[in-house]
């Protein structure tokens, strides 16, 4: 018995339906030509708050609200904090968001604008998480984890459900991988629909905690490094309870990308797909452009790339798309 099962994801979909979008799956002619098979982009960029995180956060908070909770706290590299702030406002709850000083200013500002309290603390995601847990312990807020939580995983799983409904013959799904909440949720629904669906997790070459943990056979800490894919930074928690085991169970292929490749992904999204995506959202496209995905596997059938978010600083975006980042 898994801690999250497909029935949980169906229930999550009902709970979040009014506040979260069913996102479009758009075919990319240029990437389809390159891969020799249909390539579709799952556009989480159009979600309120600009990332898929609103699914898991809205689901977790909706469950807490049903239980009578009114005050939540979280730690975040940006998108989860923003999503919790949005969900709290939508559900009439009070949110406090702890972030490390590495989080870009545009993301901090966005959380404040959604009515949440922000506390900046330390220089790593683990520092921010520690502070959030302290506030939960001492002030009675309920901590909402960014990924390692069954309700968050079930919320992200609604992406997988939409994919298998909209592309029943999907053969490959490529998912950005950090803490693994997104990967675990999508893989749960994909493998339940068809165990032959190949699940690929993509992340940046330096500071990839899940990748290092999979290699080590247990959760390990890595040094945080600045990356264009800032939403993929942060540890998975040495006390990880769910996402490490679920990711290990379902991952068929794990890919690492360097910064130049992620930049090409962002530029491709903009020039060819007319999409503004953040680094973490571009890794699937980057992997395909790099030829990093197994060609024989790609020929098995349609490929879905999960494009997770659009929250990039627009000055950085301009530099990257001009080729000078
Ligand atoms: C959080 C996030 C990810 C990674 O999700 P995990 O559940 O931590 O693996 C990928 N892309 C974007 C845009 C994100 O905000």
UniProtKB/TrEMBL annotation:
Gene3D superfamilies, per the entry: 3.40.50.1100
Stretches assigned to the Tryptophan synthase beta chain-like PALP domain: 19-307
Cofactor(s) listed: pyridoxal 5'-phosphate
Pfam family, one: PALP
This protein's UniProt keywords: Lyase, Pyridoxal phosphate
Domain of life, source organism: Bacteria
NCBIfam families: ectoine_eutB, PRK07476.1
Protein name: Hydroxyectoine utilization dehydratase EutB
Organism: Paraburkholderia kururiensis
Organismal lineage: Bacteria, Pseudomonadati, Pseudomonadota, Betaproteobacteria, Burkholderiales
UniProt gene name: eutB
């Amino acid at each position: 018995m898994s801690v999250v099962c497909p029935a949980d994801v169906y229930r999550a979909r009902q709970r979040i339906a009014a506040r979260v979008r069913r996102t479009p799956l758009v075919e990319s002619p240029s990437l389809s030509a390159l891969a020799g098979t249909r390539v579709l982009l799952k556009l989480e960029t159009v979600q309120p708050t600009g990332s898929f995180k609103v699914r898991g956060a809205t689901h977790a908070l909706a469950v807490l609200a049903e239980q009578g909770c009114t005050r939540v706290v979280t730690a975040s590299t940006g998108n989860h904090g923003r999503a919790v702030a949005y969900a709290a406002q939508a559900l009439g709850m009070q949110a406090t968001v702890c972030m490390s000083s590495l989080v870009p200013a545009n993301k901090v500002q966005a959380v404040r604008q959604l009515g949440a309290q922000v506390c900046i603390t330390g220089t790593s995601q683990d520092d921010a998480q520690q502070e959030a847990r302290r506030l939960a312990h001492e002030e009675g807020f309920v901590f909402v984890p960014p990924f390692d939580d069954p309700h968050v995983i079930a919320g992200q799983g609604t992406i997988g459900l939409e994919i298998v409904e909209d592309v029943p013959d999907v053969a490959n799904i490529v998912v950005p991988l950090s803490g693994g909440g997104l990967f675990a949720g999508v893989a749960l629904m994909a493998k339940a629909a068809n165990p032959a669906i190949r699940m690929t997790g993509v992340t940046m070459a330096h500071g990839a905690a899940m990748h290092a943990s999979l290699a080590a056979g247990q959760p390990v800490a890595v040094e945080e490094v600045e990356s264009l894919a800032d939403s993929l930074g942060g540890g998975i928690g040495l006390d990880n309870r769910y996402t490490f085991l679920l990711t290990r169970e379902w991952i068929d292929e794990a890919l690492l990308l360097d910064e130049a490749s992620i930049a090409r992904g962002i530029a491709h999204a903009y020039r060819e797909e007319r999409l503004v995506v953040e680094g973490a959202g571009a890794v699937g496209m980057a992997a395909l452009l790099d030829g990093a995905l197994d060609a024989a596997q790609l020929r098995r059938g349609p490929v879905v790339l999960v494009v997770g978010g659009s929250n990039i600083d627009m000055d950085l975006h301009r530099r990257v798309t001009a080729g000078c980042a």
